[in-house]
Amino acid sequence: MTISTKPNNTQTKKVVYDPISLSEYSSDIYKYMKELEIKLLPDPNYVEHQQEVTWSARTILINWIAEVHWKFRMQPETLYLTVNIIDRFLSVKSIKLNKFQLLGLCSLLISAKYEETVVPSIKDLVYMVNNMYTNEEIIQAERCVLVLLGFDLGYPGPMNFLRRISKADGYDTKTRTLAKYLIEITLLDEHFINCPPSVIASAAVLLARKILFNDHNWVK
Q1: Is 70 exceeded by the pLDDT of residue 139?
Q2: What pTM, to 2 d.p., does this model score?
Q3: 3-state secondary structure the chain
Q4: What is the pLDDT of residues 155-180, one digit of tens each?
Q5: Which of 46, 87, 122, 217 has its CA 20 to 30 Å from the CA of residue 23?
């Protein structure tokens, strides 16, 4: 997986203009995000109901998605939403292994449409899988996923909570960069599937500060 240590202009603007940071509404927004993060958590044991998909297959798929995500220079939120969509879909629907990459592809497309200002074309995505799937297959899979999830895409990923924590931490660049890396690698481990993103973000910042500054007092 690849992480950028230098944020692009869009990422910088998100810190400056992030509506979650507006003091007048921040408490209400944060409360709503806390409700959503629990509502949109996947089933941590969904592999038990899958006939072909395994945790190792999930790890391989997410690694591949992370590479595609990086090549298209997408926002971090797109990656986290993609993984959340995949896990939530698999929580309620069994899928054949030969359609697993198609699920990852259409989940990335859905997330890009939700999070990005510039979205990769289906043609570009078909190229990324060496024409394994057709345009129509991707469109049909996209429709199937959206309907099954009730078009509920408002997952508040860990980056949303990291911004709030970073504000309290004075936007320390080293802490934020290491925390982003620690958060990203949790995507590969199934033990974090049922962990609320606010907890993942908080733990990442705490661990980052311990690593960088040997700080054992920062607990809130």
Answers
A1: yes
A2: 0.85
A3: CCCCCCCCHHHHHHHHHCHHHCCCCHHHHHHHHHHHHHHCCCCCCHHHHCCCCCHHHHHHHHHHHHHHHHHCCCCHHHHHHHHHHHHHHHHHCCCCHHHHHHHHHHHHHHHHHHHCCCCCCHHHHHHHCCCCCCHHHHHHHHHHHHHHCCCCCCCCCHHHHHHHHHHHCCCCHHHHHHHHHHHHHHHHCHHHCCCCHHHHHHHHHHHHHHHHHCCCCCCC
A4: 999 999 998 888 777 778 899 999 99
A5: 217
Q: With beta carbons less than 8 A apart as the criterion, state whether 187 and 108 touch.
A: no
Q: What's the CA gap between 92 and 119, in Å, rounded? A: 27
Tokens of 90: 């698999």
CATH number of 41-148: 1.10.472.10
CATH entry, 8-39+156-220, from 2.30.130.10, 1.10.472.10, 1.10.10.10, 3.40.1190.10: 1.10.472.10
For residues 153, 149, 138, 185, the Cα torsion angle rounded to the nearest 10 degrees is 60
Domain ranges for the chain: 8-39+156-220, 41-148
